[in-house]
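Example protein was shown:

_____
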Amino acid sequence: MGNRLERVFEPVQIGSLRLKNRFVMAPMGTNYGDNRGMVTSRQVAYYAERARNGVGMVTIEVTCISNTGRATTYQLGAYHDDFIPGLAKLAGAIKKHDCRCSLQLHHAGRRANPLLNQGAIPVAPSPIPALGARFPEN
């Protein structure tokens, strides 16, 4: 019986998704997006480097699904077709290294930053403001 840890280096099939190994990078907030939620070249380079170093899958950081649910200034967006080219470029840079990617979808709910949400009332299960929510200007 070999070392049980060797299995992390083996490919794995999850439904129709094949990963070259079982290493998955958890999402981390980089703040490398621009202030509209667009992917930047710095962000592409950051994730491509992680993929190049051998992980089987990268989970891209919190990505807002609504313009009323942004939490931070440089949070990525995925709520309009304008975001598709940047997200496609990011995915392509990751896939180039035989790595797969997933996207952490996010809506800040009652913790949505009012300075970023064009004055819209956030969608949340409660109208009560989140206790301790802080909204830095950037």
